[in-house]
Specification:
Elements: E1 8-13, H1 19-32, E2 40-44, H2 47-65, H3 69-82, H4 91-103, E3 109-112, H5 113-128, E4 135-137, H6 142-154, H7 156-169, H8 175-187, H9 189-195, H10 207-216, H11 218-235, H12 248-256, H13 262-271, H14 273-276, H15 293-344, E5 346-348, H16 349-360, E6 368-369, E7 372-373, H17 375-380, E8 387-390, H18 398-408, E9 413-418, H19 432-436, H20 438-441, E10 446-450, H21 458-468, E11 495-502, H22 516-523, E12 533-537, H23 540-552, E13 557-559, H24 572-583, H25 586-594, H26 602-610, H27 612-620, H28 627-632, H29 640-646, H30 654-674, H31 678-706, E14 714-715, E15 720-721, H32 722-736, H33 742-755, H34 758-761, H35 765-779, H36 784-793, E16 809-813, H37 814-817, E17 822-831, E18 844-850, E19 857-864, H38 868-871, H39 875-900, E20 903-913, E21 915-916, E22 919-920, H40 923-931, H41 933-939, E23 943-947, H42 986-1010, H43 1016-1035, H44 1037-1053, E24 1063-1072, E25 1077-1087, E26 1092-1099, H45 1108-1125, E27 1130-1137
Parallel strand pairs: 1-9, 1-10, 2-3, 2-8, 4-5, 8-9, 11-20, 12-16, 12-17, 13-16, 17-20, 26-27
Antiparallel strand pairs: 6-7, 11-23, 14-15, 18-19, 21-22, 24-25, 25-26
Helix pairs in contact: 1-2, 2-3, 2-4, 5-16, 6-7, 6-8, 7-15, 11-15, 16-18, 24-25, 24-32, 32-33, 42-43, 43-44
């Protein structure tokens, strides 16, 4: 096929319409156009999408090149879409491309947008920063911002630059607010780098006019005071009563200032800015007294006049100067932050994007000429780009677009795929308008729309169409009807349902929650195939609530969480217990006992607190391990104070306590000397006798109090005995003091699990995996102190595991579900307010606007929250904010749309929504009622269903009745603890360790040979470096040296294998169509001249060529390969002993 002219396509693809399929076809088409795969770049937004596209491309190319079953349909589609003929398909050329791509996978340029910028950063910017390696973070820690703030405060010059912010914010004692401002400004940098060159256009006015303007806004305020004063005098009322009670003081202060002290008056107004702008204060006057229409209209007009003029004054005299000062400070701050990041060698994805952008657009580096990248830049990113494909384009940010645009301007072919209806990343600066206007921005592009869903069944598609056709005519949200596979009988089925529950006015523990219907449907076997079902919700907190309910009913689920493992319900109580063991902090013990795992009630906590001293003696000092026996034999004359002091040797007060003891002894001595006569002695003895009796009585009462635990001994929630729990804690505490070997750590871990029946209480795969991971981390540290220090430092990085049960229901946020599909989708929505509040906690507020093509910044302003309401009285800033609010509204519609289009067969909507003024405070809920009003009227409820729940019978596995509690035997946890698990199993653990070590050596050997093709001497150097880098620490350098010597001897004995006449493929990946599995062949040599293919399999051990298992394996490779190449090559196999 001859090279063709450039091709620029904007592909608009609704959910499920096959965009990944089409993108993969575009890739094959470009190969057919003789474009080298090394010059095709595909950019996606997730690692999952990257893997999926790569897999599809390999599969499509293989199917077409080798004329497999799916290849016929693929060729047909390629012909129809691109107007190709049979002559355009060169089978041999495509096969060669397929093998080349397999051989040179590292040259396939399919990236996430983050990995693409990472590549530029790693190859050009990191060396520029003089760092050879760095760590990539998802987000920056709060510690980082505190560190930056401390640097500013500790340096006098830095502080002077920051001082204006302290004066403006005015919260000198609230340090955390300034740390928050630093954080906001650092996060703001990705917008700042684009907009920083924008200059505010201030009106230049003479001094005379400025003076007039200063007085101007005071006049309406003074007129308000005068009007109210006249009214109060006429009615004989106190003037203070006629003003809003929160504002009179301000008017009174202004009035008291002399006519010539305008500056002081202005100062008063600015100082009381927040009160004057309080949205709760509608009128400055008191509406209870002032009701006369003419007067109220006059006062309201004066109030509006004041706010309008005051707004202009604040903009010119406060906001604009602050904006310019803040820009100067940002330049300093970003330089300080950059130096800190370079020093720590830690960068977030945002940092990498920002520094890449700055690097590319640095005029001194000359990477851009005539608005196009130079050849120098393309060398950095891995070569020229003839074709660029961008997936999920609607999620592209302006910063990313600025880089992509320059690449597009150099590419012959552009394919951008997206769906503005699925733009849900505004919070990450995704800009859907870019995709909406892309056909105007990219010259010569044409728009294609995919309108047929290959995902969803009839009931789902028809109801989604019904909901979204003519959804919102007021906003810029467009929806075109989507077709389903009407020609396929299977797709005529499906189920749609929605149920709306009105929430109570105030949240309560007893209020009905609609998500519990999911539990009922599963327990009633309405939904059986849990592994292909998903519960989608807007927020993680709702998923956590649902997960708790599923756990309570023992229903397996998968919840991939961004939360720390320490927050996992199964791990948190164990962690509290271990912290108690280490720190002897009674609070941790209480938290453990109050956890769901143990289930202690208030009565138990009361008992513990009242008898804290005695329980501490039991835990720390008593040789008795049983709590019952300990109390029976307890000596109530025990000196608690002495015990306390003896157990706190490092206490600062120890010296004072000892002095007090000496003084006490002296006093007792003096007292005895004073008792000389019998009468006094008798009185003293009588007193002692009384004291003894009182003490005995006190001991008796105390003993009775202590033994009261027997009345509450049974912890009814979980069936534990309170005394047993304390005894077990003591035993484990003793074990925890000596964890100096792997075996002891494993035994300690198992004892904790066994004693508190943890795997009975937390029994899902998710629970088990998190418990296992927690103890595995513990096992890798020398002691508890080391372990807790590590896990506290890394807790944000160590995320919770989800269950991987095949028949576990999936739980995901809308954002996580994007790009996925499930047979059954439950979309749960909970809403109590009609409008989601904007980021009210933010101290910094920004206004930024671009032209239609996103080339230039047309407005840019950064200010403080306290000025926002006044700024919004300016039309241009008001319009910017209104556009932002409109975007937020559309993004919520998009989130709902994404959730509804994940379903293949069954879509069930369950909404807990609050009503406000007879309307639900959720747009989708109101649309459902509007669109289905006739059906709802007939049902006399706000529930609707259509079709029948459909699940393929052969996919459904038998599952146990969820009402039965599955008790997870301790044996099921044992496989998670590797090596020497039990005390008496050391031989088997040794075998496991040896087996694992042998496996690692095998992997290392293959990794070395993977680098040896035909240039043996040079490639041995590369292979040596590679094996040390990957396996040096794992296997040990001495072992590696021995292995290299052995492998080099093997190469020397078998030099013919490494003859340059062969075309070589190492670690060759091949697909077994019969067994539906991938296989990896160690080495393939192709002798094109003699039409022979040699399959080599490296094996260690004695005479591996005689091993039947190995022989069967290599023959299987031969069978698979012969099917793919036919009879044109002779295939020879050989097992090689290394």
């Amino acid at each position: 096929m001859k090279n063709q002219e450039s091709n620029k396509i904007i592909l608009k693809a609704s959910a499920g319409t096959g965009k990944t399929y089409r993108l993969s076809l575009e890739y094959i088409y470009n190969l057919l156009k003789n474009i080298d795969f090394k010059n095709i770049v595909v950019v996606t937004f997730t690692k999952k999408a990257t893997a999926e596209i790569k897999e599809r491309i390999f599969d499509f190319l293989y199917q077409v090149a080798f004329e497999k079953s799916k290849g016929i349909e693929l060729k047909k589609n390629l012909k129809e879409i691109y107007n190709l003929s049979e002559d355009d398909f060169d089978k041999e050329k495509l096969q060669n491309i397929y093998f080349e791509m397999l051989k040179n996978k590292e040259d396939i340029r399919i990236y996430t947008i983050d990995s693409f910028t990472n590549r530029i950063f790693k190859q050009a910017i990191a060396p520029y920063f003089e760092i050879s390696s760095f760590e990539t973070l998802d987000s920056e820690s709060n510690d980082f911002y505190e560190k930056i703030f401390k640097k500013i405060m500790d340096n006098e010059n830095y502080y002077k630059k920051f001082e204006f912010l302290i004066e403006e914010v005015g919260e000198k004692k609230e340090i955390k607010n300034y740390v928050k401002i630093i954080e906001e400004l650092v996060e703001f940098q990705k917008k700042y780098v684009i907009a920083k060159d924008f200059e505010l256009k201030e009106d230049k006015q003479d001094n005379q006019k400025k003076v007039l303007e200063v007085f101007d806004f005071l006049t309406p305020l003074q007129e308000i005071y005068s009007e109210v004063k006249i009214f109060s005098e006429e009615k004989g009322k106190n003037i203070s009563e006629c003003f809003n009670d929160k504002l009179f003081e301000i008017f009174d202060q202004i009035k008291k200032e002399s006519e010539n002290s305008s500056e002081k008056k202005i100062e008063i107004v600015i100082k009381n800015l927040e009160k004057l702008l309080d949205s709760k204060i509608k009128n400055y006057y008191n509406g209870k007294f002032i009701r006369k229409k003419e007067l109220t209209e006059t006062l309201q007009e004066l109030q509006k006049n004041f706010l309008d003029k005051f707004s202009k004054y604040i903009l010119k005299n406060k906001v604009y100067p602050f904006h310019n000062k803040l820009k100067e400070f940002c330049e300093f701050l970003y330089d300080l932050v950059r130096r800190e990041k370079i020093s720590s060698k830690k960068f977030t994805h945002d940092d990498i994007s920002i520094y890449t952008y700055e690097f590319i657009f640095d005029k001194n580096l000359k990477f851009i000429e005539n608005n196009k990248f130079t050849q120098d830049f393309f060398e950095i990113i891995g070569g020229n780009i003839d074709t660029i494909m961008v997936d999920e384009f609607q999620d592209t940010s302006i910063l990313q677009w600025k880089i992509l645009k320059l690449i597009m301007d150099c590419a012959k072919n552009i394919i951008c795929v997206g769906d503005e209806k699925q733009s849900i990343y505004g919070w990450r600066d995704g800009e859907k308008e870019l995709f909406e206007n892309l056909d105007e921005i990219v010259d010569g592009s044409k728009v294609e729309t995919l309108k047929k869903s290959y995902r969803s069944y009839k009931a789902v598609i028809e109801n989604v169409n019904k909901i979204y056709c003519d959804y919102d005519e007021k906003s810029n949200w467009n929806y075109e009807k989507v077709d389903y596979k009407a020609e396929d009988a299977e797709y005529q089925k499906g189920y749609f349902e929605f149920k709306i529950n009105e929430l109570e006015s105030k949240k309560s523990l007893t209020e009905k929650r609609i998500f519990k219907n999911i539990i009922q449907m599963i327990e009633n076997k309405e939904i059986k195939n849990l592994g292909k079902s998903c519960i989608v919700a807007g927020k993680n907190k709702y998923l956590s609530e649902i997960a708790s309910e599923l756990n309570a009913h023992n229903i397996p689920y998968t919840l991939k969480s961004n939360k720390s493992i320490l927050e996992h319900s199964a791990v948190n109580p164990i962690y509290r217990l271990i912290k108690y063991f280490l720190y002897n902090n009674f609070q941790y013990l209480l938290e453990f006992l109050r956890s769901d795992l143990i289930g202690c009630l208030n009565s138990h906590v009361k008992y513990i607190l009242e008898n804290k001293n005695i329980i501490e003696i039991f835990m720390k000092n008593s040789k008795e391990e049983d709590f019952d026996l300990f109390l029976e034999n307890f000596d109530f004359n025990f000196d608690f104070e002495k015990n306390k002091n003896e157990n706190n040797e490092n206490n600062e007060n120890t010296k004072n306590i000892n002095i007090e003891r000496i003084e006490k002894r002296e006093r007792e001595k003096e007292k005895k000397e004073e008792i000389k006569d019998e009468k006094i002695e008798k009185k003293y003895e009588d007193k002692e006798e009384i004291e003894d009796k009182e003490k005995d009585k006190e001991i008796k009462i105390k003993k009775e109090e202590l033994l009261k635990y027997k009345k509450i001994n049974l912890i009814e929630r979980n069936g534990f005995l309170f005394s047993d729990v304390l005894s077990k804690i003591k035993k484990l505490k003793k074990l925890s003091e000596n964890l100096n070997s792997k075996t002891k750590k494993e035994n300690f871990s198992l004892e904790v699990i066994k004693d508190f029946e943890i795997t009975n209480f937390y029994s899902t795969n998710s629970d088990i995996k998190n418990i296992f991971e927690f103890f595995n981390i513990l096992k890798s540290h020398t002691d508890l102190f080391d372990f807790i220090n590590y896990i506290e430092e890394k807790k944000e990085d160590i995320k919770q595991f989800g269950s991987e049960d095949k028949n576990a229901i999936n739980l995901m946020t809308v954002h996580k579900s994007k790009g996925l599909e499930f047979d059954t989708v439950f979309y749960y929505k909970c809403k109590r307010m009609s409008k989601s509040s904007r980021n009210e906690t933010s101290k910094i507020k920004t206004f930024i606007q671009f032209d239609r093509n996103f080339e230039k910044v047309t407005e840019f302003l950064v200010t403080l929250k306290k000025y926002e309401k006044l700024i919004l009285r300016d039309e241009k800033y008001k319009k910017i904010r209104e556009l932002e609010e409109e975007k937020e509204k559309i993004e919520e519609i998009n989130r709902d749309y994404v959730a509804l289009t994940r379903a293949k067969k069954n879509l069930i909507l369950l909404f807990d929504i609050k009503k406000s003024s007879e309307k639900y405070c959720d747009e989708l809920t109101e649309k459902l009622i509007e669109k289905y009003k006739d059906c709802l009227y007939l049902n006399e409820s706000e529930n609707y269903s259509n079709g029948e729940i459909y699940e393929e019978i052969n996919e459904i596995k038998k599952i146990k009745n969820m009402k039965e509690t599955t008790i997870l035997d301790l044996k099921k946890i044992l496989p998670y603890f590797s090596d020497n698990i039990a005390k008496n199993d050391r031989n088997s653990s040794k075998i496991n360790l040896e087996k694992e070590f042998k496996r690692k050596k095998g992997l290392a050997m293959h990794y070395y040979f993977e680098h040896i093709l035909t240039d043996v001497e040079n490639e041995k150097k590369v292979a040596t470096s590679a094996i040390f880098s990957r396996y040096g620490n794992m296997i040990g350098k001495n072992n590696i040296f021995e292995m290299i010597e052995r492998m080099n001897n093997f190469i020397q004995r078998n030099l013919e294998i490494y003859n340059p006449k062969y075309k070589v493929y190492n670690e060759f990946e091949i697909y077994d169509d019969e067994k539906m599995e991938k296989r990896i062949i160690d080495r393939i040599n192709i002798d094109e001249k003699n039409k022979k293919i040699y399959i080599f399999d490296y094996k260690t051990g004695y005479e591996p060529e005689k091993n039947e298992k190995y022989k069967e394996q290599i023959e299987n490779y031969k069978r698979i390969l012969s099917k793919k190449v036919g009879k044109s090559y002779e295939i020879i196999t050989q097992i090689l002993e290394v």
